[in-house]
Amino acid sequence: MLRSKIRRMTLIDPVLLKARLASLAGRFDVDALDECDSTSSELMRRAERGAPSGSVVVADRQSAGRGRRGRSWLSSPESSLTFSLLWRFPGNAASLSGLSLAVGVGLAQAMENLGAKGVCLKWPNDVLLRSGDDFAKLAGILIELSSDRRGTQAIIGIGLNLAPPTGDLPQPAAGLSQACPQPIDRHDVLAAILGQLAAVLDTFTVNRFFGLKMKWQQYHAWQDQAVQILGDGVDPKRGRCLGVDDDGALLLETAAGIERIFSGDVSLRRA
Ligand code: BTN
Prior knowledge:
Blueprint: H1 14-21, E1 29-36, H2 39-48, E2 55-62, E3 80-89, H3 99-113, E4 119-122, E5 126-131, E6 134-148, E7 151-161, H4 176-179, H5 186-207, H6 213-219, E8 226-231, E9 234-244, E10 250-254, E11 257-261, E12 265-268
Parallel strand pairs: 1-2
Antiparallel strand pairs: 2-3, 3-7, 4-5, 5-6, 6-7, 8-9, 8-12, 9-10, 10-11
Helix pairs in contact: 1-5, 3-5, 3-6
The structure holds biotin (BTN).
């Protein structure tokens, strides 16, 4: 029996996206799916089968979207953009410290280029929208690395709220539509992000995070402010946030001196 597989129209049309990517189109191989478990899991499977650097999987729906720290990532097709990008680097995973911060810089720059105002970064890898004294999460980044003798592959997973999410959320969340004066088209958003990611990943390949540190600090939500850092099973650390070092570690000035922080959840301490 002849079975035909009819593919539903996805919210991203690769032909339109290619036109938006213009001269950068050759650097990406984009597949748009109606649904998958997780774009990062799907891309990881494709990477194992030899998918090239620059492969992108974008999906309208994820049945098992993954967030950082083992959390799940929920998104709804119309109001979000969920995709993963495969990028290969020479060298081992240890040489890629600060990669997630570099990706944050690319996202923030892309949103600014789309006209967004108030976009900033929270260490290590959240994109926030500032509104007065309040901050809400616009996008999350999940990077998964694996190395072999040829180098290291990064699966860069990005979940961006195009419209503010509704429902019971673990933290305040915002949508890109709130930051942009004009209505935004998801093809323009994805093309702007991929374009900026190509630029920051090229810089990162040559100069590592050192080449992007100043830019990151310009976007840093709480540069030079009083913060606290919550870690699993340890007392909160309090101090003034001095920014990040060349490896992307957070620099916290405390009574005991400057500490390098490698993990934890940072929040602002209001006076
Ligand atoms: C975070 O917890 O802040 C990171 C969230 C990353 C979610 C994205 S959505 C696309 C890609 N696929 C996944 O399963 N996760 C990432």
